[in-house]
Amino acid sequence: MISFLQSNSWADQTYLQWLFALGVLVGTVLFRMPFANFLNWLFYRAFSEKNIKKRKRFHELTGRNLRRLLVLLACYIALSILSVPEHFQWFGKPYHIRFYMDIALQLGLIWTASKILLRIADFVSEVWQDKSQISIDPARAQWGPYIKDGIKVAVILSAFLFVIGIVFQANIAALVGGLGIGGLAVALAAQESLANLLGSFTIFLDKPFTIGDTIEFKGITGTVEHVGFRSTRMRTLDKSYVTVPNKALVTEPLNNITESTHRRAAFKLGLVYQTKPETLRVIIQSILSVLQSNPLIEENPSVTFFGYGESSLDLQIIYLVKTPDYNEYLQVREFVNFEIYRIVDEHDTDFAFPTRTMVTVHDDGTKP
């Protein structure tokens, strides 16, 4: 039987070659689902523990591309079994049919394998984020984007080198050496991006803030949601999504409100000049008592007669609220403001506002 298959041929291929090639293709197409599931299970166990929900998620990310990879691999093996001629004559012109088929299949294999690795990077990042939420470690949560982006950059770079070095058989060492001359120009053109990249490493190592912290930077206050290689993104109090380059965050002053133990309130209060000195002293003492009696206000608040304004007697009020929470700070400040309003009203005086007094003088120097 085997001798018959080897001695007879069709289209310059023996029956045995056709049988093996078709067997590989048909067998892979029929059994690609269970084989892909088995490989998925092996890959999954390398990245996560036994968890049905996570295993299903991993299968959703990689299953389809893994089945495609198996079919492409079967096509490549079948092509290797068949003795496809290097040249194919078409209307008297030779075509490198085997060369083009090899390149197409190799590109398909590299592309599909790269997509699988990119999906695995997404899965690793999701697992890391889940574990960081369980451990309640903001610094660990900040690792997630770095891991995912780092794996993706490595996969894309490796795929590019595979295509250049294996598919097109280029000399990678010579290519890298040739790029050395132009590397300086590229580095100069990309120095801003490199500065942001170094800034991201500084943020990660020095930890001026982590994901979830509320920071204030150049008048913008928001909660950090993402720290990437180039920029940091935060959600402001009005729910806007602001992107700030990492370089600016490590070179400019930044206030980490979450790490603050207190919030400071400082403002001036103007009373009318008709206020008597005795009344002014009582108002100062009353405001000071309100501040001292509030448990959320730090000890030793300051209420002083600051000076004489253009149209007001100025009081300066300074106190610290024992909370980093902005909403709680606003509630305390609102309470204090209402108490100040009540105190001023009870002492028969009023708040000052800009005024001008016009005095008319006759030519002889007398007033009307």
Report the span from N to C terminus: 136 Å
Let me know the number of strands.
12
Please, what is the average pLDDT? 79
Widest sheet: strand ordering? 8-7-6-5-9
What level of helicity do the residues show?
A: 55-70%
What does the radius of gyration come to? 37 Å
Draw up the topology in text.
Blueprint: H1 2-7, E1 9-10, E2 13-14, H2 15-47, H3 52-81, E3 88-90, E4 93-95, H4 97-135, H5 138-141, H6 143-167, H7 172-189, H8 191-206, E5 214-217, E6 220-227, E7 231-236, E8 241-245, H9 246-251, E9 255-256, E10 263-271, H10 277-293, E11 302-308, E12 313-321, H11 326-346
Antiparallel strand pairs: 1-2, 3-4, 5-6, 5-9, 6-7, 7-8, 10-12, 11-12
Structure description:
This protein is of the alpha+beta class. Helices cover 58% and strands 16% of the residues. It has helices at residues 2-7, 15-47, 52-81, 97-135, 138-141, 143-167, 172-189, 191-206, 246-251, 277-293, 326-346; strands spanning 9-10, 13-14, 88-90, 93-95, 214-217, 220-227, 231-236, 241-245, 255-256, 263-271, 302-308, 313-321. The strands form four sheets. The protein has a five-stranded antiparallel β-sheet with strand order 8-7-6-5-9. The longest helix is centred in the N-terminal third of the chain and has 39 residues, at 97-135. The protein is elongated. The chain starts with a helix and ends in a 22-residue tail after the last helix.
